[in-house]
Amino acid sequence: VGSAFRVRLRMFPTLVNNTSIDWFTEWPQEALKEVAMKFLTSLEDIEGGDEMKSNVADCFVVVHTSVGAASLRMKDDLRRSNYVTPTNYLELVAGYIKILEDKRNELGDQCDKLQGGLSKLEETKVSVQKMSEDLEQARVALQKAEADCDSLLTIITSEKRQADEKKTQVEADKVKIAREKEVATAIASEAQADLDKAMPELDAAQEALKTLKKADIDEIKAYKTPPEQIQTVLGAVQTVLKKPPTWDEAKKSMGDSNFLAGLMEYNKELLTDALLNKIGKYTAMPKFKPEIVGQVSNAARGLCMWCIAMHRFGLVQKEVMPKKMKLDKTREELARKEKMLAAAEEELRKTTEKVEALEKQTEEKLAEKQKLQEDAEATENKLKRAEEIVGGLGGEKDRWSESIKKYEAAILNLTGDSLLASAFVSYAGPFNSEYRQDLVNVTWMKEVRKLQIPVTRSFTANEFLAEPTEIRDWQLQGLPGDDFSVENGVLVNRGQRWPLMIDPQNQANKWIKNMEKSRGLKVLDLKMPDFLRSIEHAVQLGTPILMQDVLEEMDPSLDPILSKAVMKQGSRLVMKIGDNTVDYNENFRFYLTTKLANPHYSPEVCTKALVINFAVREDGLEDQLLKIVVRKEKAELEEQKDELVLNTAAAKKKTKELEDEILKILANSDETLLEDVNLVTTLKTSKETSIAIQKQLKDAEVTEEKINVAREAYRPCAKRAAILFFVLSDLGSIDTMYQFSLDSYVTLFTLSINKSSENIRTDSVQNRVKTLNDWHTLAVYNNTCRGLFEKHKLLFSFHMCARILQAKGELNTDEYCFLLKGGQVFDKEAQAPNPCPHWLSEKGWDNVYEADKLLAFHGISASFEQGPSQWHEVYLSPNPEDAVLPGDWNMKFDDLQRMIMIRCIRPDRVIFMVTRFIELHMDRKFVEPPSFNLQEIYDDSNPFQPLIFVLCPGVDPTTQLQALADKLGRNLKSLALGQGQAPLATRLMAEQAKTGGWVFLANCHLMLSWLPKLEKLIDDLPAQKPHDNFRIWLSSTPHEKFPIAILQQGIKMTTEPPTGLKSNLIRLYNLMTDQRFNHPKYPELYRPLLFSLCFYHSVLLERRKFGALGMAIPYDFNDSDWEVSENILQLYLDEMPDGSTASIPWDTIKYLIAEASYGGRVTDDWDRRTLGVYAAQYFHPDCVTISSHKLSTHEEYFIPSLDGTMISYKEYIMTLPVIDPPDAFGQHSNADIASQITNSMALLDTLITINSALLRAASVGGGGGGGGGGPGNGTRRF
């Protein structure tokens, strides 16, 4: 674009000869509207229909064109470039549609949630009345159920008592009968035991009988005369049978067919005692044995066994019978009692069944009562919950209603709000706060209202696009709290393109690192050899990337990422990076930052990336510095403040979460609220938490107010420090080497806090604030001046003074602007003629005429017309700044107004007025720059900071640096950079970092291409942990491509000789070592002549300011000329045979110094003659013989003493004037008018460059201005 394209065409002329160059102009407004309408056709539910769409499209056109105009205006005012392309316009339209739909959904959801919550509350209120009636009915039913239950309980109690008595009796009878059963059982057991004794024989007899057959009986019966044993047995059988014991009767009995069956079934009850006695006679017979009888007959044997068994059984039965009778009686009684017991048990059963029936009935009644009780309790609980819900959500209801109204209004205004938001996101990034406010609140808002598009009157992008909780999180993560920074945070997180942040103060870097730390942020820069591989991994894993320190030209390999060139392969999202195609993770984020304060990016970059101006604002920096000073001065206050901020943020976040949870429960609840215990619990917790939070917030407000009151006492310190930093930032517009980092400035501010408290004790906060302000202001001045060129040191002091006064409201802006730019008459015909044309120039009269328009200068032009002679006297005065002004102007004018007056008629004296103004409002120290002291600079440095010599023609700092290294015992390795020296420089840095030596890389401007690598080496120093004594020294001439990071991180020193005899003298004496000064052979001769030599060197340097009146040709005399001359002087004095004046070779010394050492540079004869005249005056016998020998006609310049100390010489030099009079050089008092005018105009022109924004604001605000030095109507903030 522009010069780059033109240069390329010149390099390759065939492009012009063999191609057809088409110049595509910007899109016309008709095309812009047509494109917008095509996009807007997809919006079907926009309020106002097609007419509203047409209005929105018209507004899009105005937005796009207004941004282009604002970019041109910014280019003219701030020299900042911004390109507006059709891509931005397409993003605006597409972004509008997306924001509109998203906001509709978001606000609609919020409204629905709140409406649902309110409807649930209304349902609850209706249910409460019905439940109150139900509760009364339930209470009546409950009372009746209680009465029924009581009646039943009385009956049950009586019946149960009777049943219990019967049960007790039955149980007692059961026990008694059981005992009797036990007795009977014992008797039966005893009788049975006795019977069991006879039973074996009886059983054996029975078995024997079973073996007998009828044939056996017939065999016995066949005996006519049976054997005795048989006859005896049968007689015993007949006796048992109670029959005659005769054989015949026996035969008759045996003849019975049932004889054996009868024996088997014999009734043993018939065995009486008499019968047993009879039988016993038989059994007692010796031969009545079965084994004896069995010898005769087997049948008789069985019968014998039977008889014996019957006899024995009878005997046993005789013993058992009483027991058996007793047993029978007992059993009979027991049966009777058991019958009675059964009757009693039956009665008890019936009674128990009756009781059980009553109990069952009672249980039913109790269950009914319990159900009624539970229903009543549930109803009461519901009523309680209703009270809790209504009470808990009562306050919410009003707030929700208001929120619904707000959301509904927001929905109605979405058309305009979304338009402004999308325009802000698409276009606002590159602009500063003033331009953004002008675009959004003036240009765009005016057009939106003009086209009758609904819009919120108090619209702000921050409130529309971000939640308060989200903004608080950003601020806790390091984002400054001012509105401009919050807008930048919104742009970073809501922009559709990857953000490219212009971050000269490293604010965005810190914030991004803290914000994305939890997601595993990777910090890269283009100097890393493998940065592309790291990006590939991050794209795949969804890891955020911070690409820091990018320059104006982007690496082409970043194009796919910046363009978001994501492709779809099947179901995968992929991106081609370099030669590799990698999966694209939608969680991937890409941030870019640059330290360039005013980069010029090509339209392609502006289209692909969202350029955001992240430069810190004064109010944001002020808050940051206030935290620092309070943390140092009142650490407990800042800790309380931090804790308060965290607690308040957490409390508000918790409140929001509770509200969202309640709304979620309300929205998802399928049952009535009165039955939702979870809701009541949540609501109760919410209420308690809300009360605690509200109390906490109220307490926090009180505490915060106390803390803020205490903190505000230190705000003047923060305000002054913020002003001073922006003064330093303004210097960057003068020279590219004037770069200052916020981190280094904060370090200096902290150092000022510590040192001021150590060196000065104060008894009040007000005194402490004043002390700190004074200390820090001087520290900033001293630290900055050592890196400024001489021509900018006074400018720096004056700019600093003006900014401080303006912040106090003690500087009239219109008058200050007039001082800078003067007056310009546009209508010459209406201008009155110059009343003093013979001495007042036309430019001077223009200034006077225009100054008359200032409030404090009304009538000044008439004063010139009425009393030109009086003003002529002021004009002719050698010191017009001290002259008495005509009329009452001397009393009316303050210092600034007098300076304006002198500027109009004697611009050559502006420098003197500026110096006096600074001395009056600040201190004399601020017009006397500190002398160059390399030792002090070294003491202020650390191993990680580069020390940078900003070279001037003819000045080489190597000698001073080597002397300091020798003094401190450091190993200095010097290397002049040039082609092929990069590896050696890298190796030297690595070696010296380990050993604690110094590295001096000279002429860095000759290897600009390697300096980014040097920057990387310096950045890596903290990780390498170098030796504490290690230092890296650099030297370079000013160059716009010198890395900003090195300049911001390093300590800059200009090697330019200072301005003025005083400053040059003190600088030369600082170069002298104590050993060299204190050990000459003849100190009474050497020291005065050394002063003469220093004066001689200073006069030759300063004589150049007189232009052709000083030297016909300007010469670059430098320190080497002085060093050679000093060596000559000491050599010849040391070789003198004695210390007399006559022994000094005056002619030789004058020749070698004037003709050889300094004269070697001189090519003009008249200039050579001038050097000789000065040498003859300064190297004269009177210099060593006369005390206080004058070196010029001006009485303040003389040799202070013949044998003074180094300190006495320096003290004398400090008494010399800051601004040298011409006669100090032997010149006429008017000789320096031309140079003074040149210097004055250069000073004012440079201040115009710095204060372009202020001048623009003043021109927009109009003239007028307040009188005096007060704020008035003309005082404005920068």
Give the helices and strands, then pairings.
Elements: H1 3-11, H2 14-18, H3 29-40, H4 49-78, H5 86-211, H6 214-221, H7 228-240, H8 247-255, H9 259-264, H10 273-283, H11 290-293, H12 298-412, H13 414-427, H14 433-450, H15 461-465, H16 468-476, H17 483-494, E1 498-502, H18 507-515, E2 522-525, H19 531-541, E3 545-548, H20 559-562, E4 566-569, E5 572-577, E6 580-583, E7 590-594, H21 603-608, E8 609-613, H22 618-633, H23 635-668, H24 677-712, H25 715-731, H26 742-759, H27 765-785, H28 790-808, H29 813-821, H30 842-851, H31 860-866, H32 868-876, H33 889-892, H34 895-905, H35 910-921, H36 934-939, E9 946-950, H37 958-968, E10 972-976, H38 982-995, E11 998-1002, H39 1011-1019, H40 1021-1024, E12 1031-1036, H41 1044-1049, E13 1051-1054, H42 1061-1071, H43 1074-1078, H44 1083-1102, H45 1119-1134, H46 1146-1157, H47 1165-1178, H48 1182-1185, H49 1206-1213, H50 1233-1250, H51 1252-1261
Parallel strand pairs: 1-7, 1-8, 2-3, 3-7, 9-12, 9-13, 10-11, 11-12
Antiparallel strand pairs: 4-5, 5-6
Helix pairs in contact: 3-4, 3-5, 4-13, 4-14, 5-12, 5-13, 5-23, 6-8, 7-8, 7-10, 7-12, 10-12, 12-24, 13-14, 16-23, 22-23, 22-25, 22-26, 23-24, 25-27, 25-28, 26-27, 28-35, 28-50, 29-34, 29-50, 30-34, 34-35, 42-44, 42-49, 44-45, 44-47, 45-46, 46-47
Structural summary, described in words:
This protein is mainly alpha-helical and 1278 residues long. It has 51 helices and 13 strands. The strands form three sheets. Strands 2-3-7-1-8 form a five-stranded parallel β-sheet, with helices on both faces. A five-stranded parallel β-sheet has the order 10-11-12-9-13, sandwiched between helices. A three-stranded antiparallel β-sheet has the order 4-5-6, with helices on one face. β10 (972-976), α38 and β11 form a beta-alpha-beta unit. α3 (29-40) packs across α4 (49-78) and α34 runs antiparallel to α35. The longest helix has 126 residues, at 86-211. It is elongated and about 210 Å long. Residues 1262-1278 have low confidence and may be disordered.
